[in-house]
Amino acid sequence: WNSFPALDKDLMSEEYIDYFPLARYSQLAYNFDAFLLLGATLKVAKYLQLIEGADMIARVFSFAASNLGFVVIFFALIFYGFVNLAQQIFGTLPHFSGPTDTTTELLFMVLSKMDRAPQLFAQAPLWGPVFMTSFIILLYFSVNTLFLAVLCSSFTVNREKRDKEF
């Protein structure tokens, strides 16, 4: 029994080889690994509380949780605005035709995969660079700086509390 009969084909054959089942299996395996990694990270954060020197990391993130929640909400609101703006400006491009496609493309842009920029600049010569510049400034610099500021502030407050305890 073979789950992927396309792998048994001769690589030099002229017939069509369907790799979709393998791709789908790889995608499911990747998603499963991502959930396992998230669970392992949460477990490590839990066990860091037991180590005397490393409990500061758990304290910082637990103290900053509410503020980080506001940062995530702020990010989501700005991101949603950019999704709507991108659909209005670049809606005729195939990767920006629907809300799901636009959201996916902009999430890739947040993760530094900006290979669609030449298509955006060709589609809208004026608004493409304006969109990309404002997207990078607001989401990269502002929200990331806000995220780090919340963590640094939380670390400072927790360090002062720890110093008062000793």
Outline the structure in words.
By secondary structure, the chain is mainly alpha-helical. Helix content is 73%, strand content 0%. The chain contains six helices and no strands. The chain has helices at residues 20-48, 55-63, 65-90, 99-110, 117-123, 127-165. Helix 3 crosses helix 4, helix 3 (65-90) packs antiparallel against helix 6 (127-165) and helix 5 (117-123) crosses helix 6 (127-165). The longest helix is centred in the C-terminal third of the chain and has 39 residues, at 127-165. The termini are far apart.
Brief rundown of the structure:
The chain is mainly α and 166 residues long. The protein is 73% helix and 0% strand.
Average pLDDT number: 83
Radius of gyration: 23 Å
**Helix coverage percent of residues?**
over 70%
Overall, the morphology is: flat
* Distance separating the two termini: 65 Å
Largest sheet, if any?
none
Helix/strand order: HHHHHH
Low-confidence stretches: none
Q: Which class best fits the helix and strand makeup?
A: mainly alpha
What is the number of helices?
Answer: 6
Characteristic terms for this protein:
166 residues; mainly alpha; 73% helix
Secondary-structure blueprint of this entry?
Layout: H1 20-48, H2 55-63, H3 65-90, H4 99-110, H5 117-123, H6 127-165
Helix pairs in contact: 2-6, 3-4, 3-6, 5-6
